[in-house]
């Protein structure tokens, strides 16, 4: 990499037609970096810190994939994308993987030609209202002004919800979560609606969180997951099973602190297969056998990632809820490693 | 003696295309055209290839699909079941509204500030200079965001109007509510309304024309026409006899009597905003996003216009002002009757480009959630349908059309104002 | 009637009255105030209203600015300190966010020590001698030095060599990499010049011109890559490369503005000439391009850069976003530049063109030796104001997801520590832009004044 990046890009780009025909996995390995599309800034899910280091729940997926494929959790180029640019960035090959709280919908999967490789967060759209309004259900919001973030599925859900319930509302579209928060706090809107996780994060940052309530209605299903381009199944498998490895690791009690120890002395065949001490699962993916171990070491298993970034001890303070393991009554149910 | 003979006929050779100045320009032009077409063909074939690879052939069929999102600020009736085309139309109208409003206020503020910058009052001139410099040298995007934040933070929310001892009350004798959701002003209503005229039936381009408004405008136009007739007659009499007959009461009568009669016949009254439920209802709601955008664009552009106006005034020779003063005109009249009309000629051309800039800057409306054409066609519609190519190209086309319209209108005006040289 | 005048009147003063002090009300501060602030009823009212306005604005802003918290690492901490000190949290700025993030706001994610990827600002690597952000700072200093001879006629002329070299220094310093690449790219211009000089006596000016364009293009496209690779393998001189993705903050605005204006200047001059040209097709192509670009908002062009440009390039090509944005901003600036230069061309008296013709100069010679030097000189104020416009417009890149100052402000507000902060960041950003734009607009005014006196 001693070439000038600028002139290199200029001269190479004009000649590079057709060079990207190889699989994404090979591309990533050849490049030595994973290009991962993330949000431009959403508390808990992805934001750069004072040193420019990206942190967050979605970011952790990028790091786990980079660790699994390249053996280095920091070999990630984070490409901030907006609601508008995210799909183009993925379709054009600018990024290899989009981990940016994107809802898995039919049209995105089928019409826009992407593959959602799983769900890393089960979310749903909710409403945040001040307690003093005395509203206890979203159906009482007739005539209310509702702040809503554009560029997502939320505005569609909102329109549907109010139409189905035959009540009127006034939508106030806003560009970023921070703006929505400001308008809501100033009373420019009666209710703020976005994914429930975002609402919890927003509420947690208020001066007085107890003065606001999240209404019980969840008006939509928002399975958020990482996605890749349609058609490159091998790469899709790598990302899908990296996510599954993190989920399975939590289920099996493998954490970033005990993974090395467990790998050497466990007798549990599934753990042995997962961590590569038995079988050749990694080779089947086109990786080595320690891939899952590295992914877990990168940021911990699913539970650790959750707890570090958005869990109850963080300012975001989200409960596991639907995102608990199936054994704990949640929806996380990773297919078996065999 | 040699006889003059025709110069030897030159045989046309291929190299003449390059070296003969008669042909060279044609050669260059053909080459340029060829190069341009080659470039265009290359771009189009690339696009075709890429789109084929993605499985997304160009198609505008999404326009007939249901948009399924709501738009708060709308001039025409619209709901989420309407098509994307109608959403784009609503957005276009919103763009035009803010552009027109912005141009008008920017001109007024700009002319005002431009004149005040030349004021003999040192403090006023300085304040105006500070205003111009601050607004010109900070990006308009920041001003838009700022304006919105100030409106939201400093104005009372509808909640504050509630209760026994409200923190805020309505202004103008309880007829206008200024809140951080926008300004609610009384709206004209009619008890015996003539109804609406539906045009284009159920299509996406349908719109209603209020017959009441048409009637009022028609009566007003007729009155003004009659007034001008009366004025013309008065002028004629003045020419003939030297005495101008008093007509002001006739004119006032012609202006107001038919209008008032019509309004009474229609049962005109004002609908006042009222706090009901979460919001004020009734009245016309000017939303904050519109006001913030309007304010920021006007103030920003006005700073540029002020400089243009100042330059225009300074360009008028001092002799004109002195001559006007010698005629006994007061300073306000000197400005209005002598200086400004002449300065207009210098002012108008740069003014055109500022109007264009304001219109183009209105595309930053998404920063405050004002649903203009960039927010609908280039925003939510593009997001939901995934048709970037179609949406962005169409968006550019729309802005291009608006720009061309503005510049042709202003150029026509400029031609009319031009000094006729003899 | 031989009487003298003195005899007909009873008293004539034969000494001068001593000069008196002017009345106190017409001189000094009071006189000045009477003349400039209270010269009439209307003016007095205006002055009083203005004073009230100033008081109102300052009484709102000053306490907020100065009764503020600097030492805090999060908004919550800020609020705690405010409550402890003043009893409430309103009306006080929390500048802690600027203290915490000012480097990020200025440089984005540009590595402070590019050669040491693990080092950050607070933990500098061992054994380094250069300060953090040495490369972008040096680039900025060199930029100012390179601009001096262009902007001020009094500056040493030798600096012009730096100005000529600067287009190659800037990308190399910012993006890094082997030193051979900028040298070889610069060599391309040498090749073009050589080709022109060598070919024109033999095959004529036009073929020489074509060769002077085509040869460097071939050199840049096909030779620079391999040759620089070969040279690097022999003698590896270079600095650590930096991805353009890491560019951000205020630096991004400056880089985008400078690159767009720098690249658009030659393009704009060509298009201005094309628009004035007698060649009909060339003229209409230029007019079409200029009017198209000027007719659409920059944001749509940025949408093109972020969403569409990849569609129009051969399949598989991948420019990074910042390069794509630079291309579109350059095209955007070029259209405006063309109009500025056209204004300069139009302002030249016709005699200059005729004079050039009468000397027997051909079109390009006339442009190069007579027309352009004068036209560009009159256009400098216009160019500067175009630059100010472009520079301010770089903030729009935040809308397509680049981390310029405004984009970073949003990202900072998304950080849990600073969630909910607002005015401080925008006040800081506004001040950054104001300082630079104000300086430039002052320069432009100075220049206009200078050019004006030259004419009279």
UniProtKB/TrEMBL annotation, chain A:
- Where in the sequence is the signal peptide annotated? 1-21
Q: Which UniProt keywords apply?
A: Signal, Transport
Which SMART domains does the UniProt record give? Answer: PBPb (SM00062)
GO BP terms: amino acid transport
Residue span, Solute-binding protein family 3/N-terminal domain = 33-262
Q: Enumerate the InterPro entries for this protein.
A: Bact_solute-bind_prot3, Solute-binding_3/MltF_N
What does the sequence similarity comment in the record state about its family? Belongs to the bacterial solute-binding protein 3 family.
- What is the official name of this protein in its record? L-glutamine-binding protein /L-glutamate-binding protein /L-aspartate-binding protein /L-asparagine-binding protein
Automatic annotation (TrEMBL), chain B:
Ranges for domain ABC transmembrane type-1: 92-410
Keyword Transmembrane helix in the entry? The reply is yes
Instruction: Tell me what topology the record assigns in the membrane.
Output: Multi-pass membrane protein
Q: Pfam families annotated for this entry?
A: BPD_transp_1
> Which UniProt keywords are listed?
Amino-acid transport, Cell membrane, Membrane, Transmembrane, Transmembrane helix, Transport
Give GO MF terms, alphabetically: transmembrane transporter activity
Q: Which family does it belong to?
A: Belongs to the binding-protein-dependent transport system permease family. HisMQ subfamily.
NCBIfam families, A to Z: HEQRo_perm_3TM
| Protein name per its UniProtKB record | L-glutamine ABC transporter membrane protein /L-glutamate ABC transporter membrane protein /L-aspartate ABC transporter membrane protein /L-asparagine ABC transporter membrane protein
Q: Which organism is it from?
A: Sedimentitalea nanhaiensis
From TrEMBL, chain C:
GO BP annotations of the record are:
amino acid transport
One Gene Ontology term, aspect cellular component: ATP-binding cassette (ABC) transporter complex
Q: What is its main location?
A: membrane
* Topology relative to the membrane: Multi-pass membrane protein
Matching entries from Pfam families are given as: BPD_transp_1
UniProt domain ABC transmembrane type-1: residue ranges: 250-444
Could you name the domain of life of the organism this protein comes from?
Bacteria
Is-annotated flag, keyword Ribosomal protein? no
Which keywords does this Swiss-Prot/TrEMBL entry list? Cell membrane, Membrane, Transmembrane, Transmembrane helix, Transport
Where it sits in the cell: the answer is: Cell inner membrane; Cell membrane
InterPro entries, alphabetically?
Answer: AA_ABC_transptr_permease_3TM, ArtM/GltK/GlnP/TcyL/YhdX-like, MetI-like, MetI-like_sf
Q: Which GO terms describe its molecular function?
A: transmembrane transporter activity
Regions crossing the membrane? 41-66, 132-152, 159-175, 247-273, 285-309, 321-341, 420-440
Similarity comment: family membership: Belongs to the binding-protein-dependent transport system permease family. HisMQ subfamily.
- What protein name does the entry list? L-glutamine ABC transporter membrane protein /L-glutamate ABC transporter membrane protein /L-aspartate ABC transporter membrane protein /L-asparagine ABC transporter membrane protein
Where is the organism placed in the taxonomic lineage, from the top? Bacteria, Pseudomonadati, Pseudomonadota, Alphaproteobacteria, Rhodobacterales
């Amino acid at each position: 990499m001693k070439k000038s990046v600028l002139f290199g890009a200029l001269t190479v780009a004009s000649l590079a037609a057709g060079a990207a025909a190889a699989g994404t996995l090979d591309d990533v390995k050849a490049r030595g970096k994973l290009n991962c599309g993330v949000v431009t800034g959403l508390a808990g899910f992805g934001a750069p810190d004072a040193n420019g280091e990206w942190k967050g729940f979605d970011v952790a997926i990028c790091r786990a994939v980079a660790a699994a494929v390249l053996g280095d959790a920091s070999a990630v180029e984070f490409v901030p994308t907006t609601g508008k640019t995210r799909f183009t960035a993925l379709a054009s090959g600018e990024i290899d993987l989009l981990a940016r709280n994107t809802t898995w919908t039919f049209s995105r999967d089928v019409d826009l030609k992407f593959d959602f490789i799983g769900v890393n967060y089960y979310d749903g759209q909710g409403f945040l209202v001040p307690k003093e309004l005395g509203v206890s259900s979203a159906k009482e919001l007739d005539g209310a002004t509702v702040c809503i973030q554009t560029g997502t599925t939320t505005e569609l859900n909102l329109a549907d919800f109010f139409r189905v319930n035959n009540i009127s509302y006034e939508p106030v579209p806003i560009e970023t979560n921070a703006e929505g928060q400001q308008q809501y706090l100033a009373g420019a809107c009666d209710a703020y609606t976005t994914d429930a996780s975002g609402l919890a994060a927003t509420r947690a940052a208020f001066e007085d969180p107890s003065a606001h309530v999240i209404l019980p209605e969840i008006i939509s299903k928002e399975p958020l997951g990482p996605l890749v381009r349609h058609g490159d199944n091998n790469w899709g498998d790598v990302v899908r099973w990296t996510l599954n490895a993190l989920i399975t690791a939590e289920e099996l009690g493998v954490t970033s602190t005990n993974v090395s120890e467990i790998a050497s002395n466990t007798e549990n065949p599934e753990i042995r297969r997962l961590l590569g001490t038995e079988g050749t699962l990694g080779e089947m993916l086109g990786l080595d056998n320690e891939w899952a171990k590295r992914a877990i070491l990168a940021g911990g298993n699913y539970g650790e990632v959750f707890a570090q970034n958005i869990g109850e001890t963080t300012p975001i303070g989200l409960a596991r809820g639907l995102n608990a393991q199936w054994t704990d009554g949640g929806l996380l149910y990773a297919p078996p490693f065999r | 003696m040699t006889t003059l003979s025709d110069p030897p006929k030159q045989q046309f050779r291929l190299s003449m295309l390059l070296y003969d100045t008669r042909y060279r320009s044609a050669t260059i032009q053909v080459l340029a055209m060829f190069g341009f077409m080659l470039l265009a063909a290359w771009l189009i074939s690339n696009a075709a290839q890429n789109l084929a690879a993605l499985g997304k052939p160009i198609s505008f069929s999404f326009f007939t699909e249901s948009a399924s999102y709501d738009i708060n600020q709308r001039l025409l009736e619209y709901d989420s079941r309407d098509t994307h085309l109608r959403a784009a139309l609503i957005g276009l109208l919103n763009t035009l509204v803010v552009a027109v409003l912005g141009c008008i206020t920017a001109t007024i503020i700009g002319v005002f500030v431009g004149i005040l910058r030349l004021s003999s009052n040192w403090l006023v001139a300085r304040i105006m200079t500070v205003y111009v410099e601050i607004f010109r040298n900070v990006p308009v995007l920041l001003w838009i965001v700022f304006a919105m934040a100030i409106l939201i933070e400093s104005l009372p929310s509808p909640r504050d109007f509630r209760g026994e001892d409200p923190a805020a009350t309505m202004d103008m004798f309880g007829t206008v509510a200024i809140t951080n959701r926008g300004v609610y002003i009384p709206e004209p209503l009619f008890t015996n309304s003539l109804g609406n005229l539906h045009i284009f039936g159920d299509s996406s381009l349908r719109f209603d024309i209020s017959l009441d408004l048409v009637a009022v405008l028609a009566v007003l136009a007729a009155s003004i026409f009659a007034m001008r007739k009366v004025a013309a007659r008065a002028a004629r009499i003045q020419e003939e006899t030297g005495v101008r007959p008093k007509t002001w009461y006739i004119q006032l009568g012609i202006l107001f009597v038919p209008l008032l009669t019509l309004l009474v016949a229609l049962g005109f009254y004002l609908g006042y905003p009222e706090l009901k439920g979460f919001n004020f209802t009734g009245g016309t709601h000017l939303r904050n996003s519109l006001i913030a955008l309007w304010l920021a664009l006007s103030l920003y552009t006005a700073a540029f216009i002020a400089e243009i106006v100042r330059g225009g005034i300074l360009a008028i020779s001092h002799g004109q002002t002195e001559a006007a003063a010698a005629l006994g005109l007061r300073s306000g009249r000197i400005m209005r009757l002598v200086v400004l009309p002449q300065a207009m000629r210098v002012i108008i051309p740069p003014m055109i480009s500022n109007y264009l800039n304001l219109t183009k800057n209105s595309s930053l409306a998404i920063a405050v959630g004002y649903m203009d054409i960039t927010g609908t066609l280039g925003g939510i519609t593009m997001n939901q349908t995934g048709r970037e190519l179609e949406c962005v190209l169409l968006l550019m086309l729309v802005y291009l059309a608006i720009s061309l319209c503005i510049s042709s209108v202003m150029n026509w005006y400029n031609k009319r104002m031009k000094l006729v040289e003899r | 009637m031989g009487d003298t005048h003195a005899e007909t009147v009873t008293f004539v003063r034969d000494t001068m009255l001593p000069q008196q002090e002017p009345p106190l009300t017409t001189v000094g501060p009071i006189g000045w105030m009477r003349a400039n602030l209270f010269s009439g009823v209307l003016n007095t009212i205006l002055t009083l209203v203005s004073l009230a306005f100033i008081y109102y604005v300052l009484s709102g802003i000053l306490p907020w600015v100065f009764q503020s918290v600097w030492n805090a690492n999060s908004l919550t901490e800020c609020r705690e300190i405010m409550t402890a000190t003043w009893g409430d949290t309103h009306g006080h700025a929390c500048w802690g966010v600027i203290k915490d993030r000012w480097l990020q706001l200025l440089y984005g994610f540009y590595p402070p020590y590019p050669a040491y990827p693990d080092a950050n600002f607070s933990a500098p690597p061992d054994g380094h001698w250069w300060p953090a952000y040495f490369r972008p700072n040096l680039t900025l200093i060199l930029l100012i030095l390179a601009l001096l001879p262009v902007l001020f006629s009094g500056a040493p002329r030798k600096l012009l060599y730096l100005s000529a070299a600067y287009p190659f220094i800037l990308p190399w310093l910012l993006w890094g990499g082997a030193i051979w690449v900028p040298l070889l790219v610069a060599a391309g211009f040498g090749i073009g010049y050589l080709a022109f000089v060598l070919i024109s006596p033999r095959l004529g000016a036009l073929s020489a011109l074509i060769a002077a364009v085509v040869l460097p293009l071939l050199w840049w496209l096909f030779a620079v890559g391999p040759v620089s690779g070969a040279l690097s393998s022999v003698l590896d001189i270079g600095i650590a490369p930096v991805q353009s993705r890491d560019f951000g903050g205020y630096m991004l605005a400056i880089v985008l503005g400078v690159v767009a204006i720098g690249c658009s200047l030659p393009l704009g001059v060509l298009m201005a000439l094309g628009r004035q040209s007698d060649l009909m097709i060339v003229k209409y192509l230029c007019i079409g391009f200029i009017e198209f670009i000027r007719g659409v908002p920059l944001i749509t062009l940025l949408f093109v850069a972020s969403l569409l440009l990849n569609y129009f390039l051969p399949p598989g090509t991948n420019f990074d976003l910042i390069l794509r944005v630079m291309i579109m901003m350059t095209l955007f600036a070029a259209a405006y530049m063309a109009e500025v230069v056209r204004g300069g061309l139009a302002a030249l008296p016709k005699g200059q063109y005729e004079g050039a013709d009468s000397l027997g100069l051909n079109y390009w010679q006339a442009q190069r030796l007579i027309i352009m030097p004068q036209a560009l000189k009159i256009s400098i104020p216009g160019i500067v104001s175009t630059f100010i416009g472009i520079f301010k417009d770089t903030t729009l890149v935040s809308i397509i997801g680049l981390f310029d100052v405004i984009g970073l402000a949003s990202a900072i507000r998304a950080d849990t520590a600073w969630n909910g902060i607002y005015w401080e960041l925008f006040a800081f950003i506004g001040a950054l832009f104001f300082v630079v734009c104000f300086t430039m607009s002052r320069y432009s005014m100075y220049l206009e004044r200078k050019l004006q006196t030259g004419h009279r």
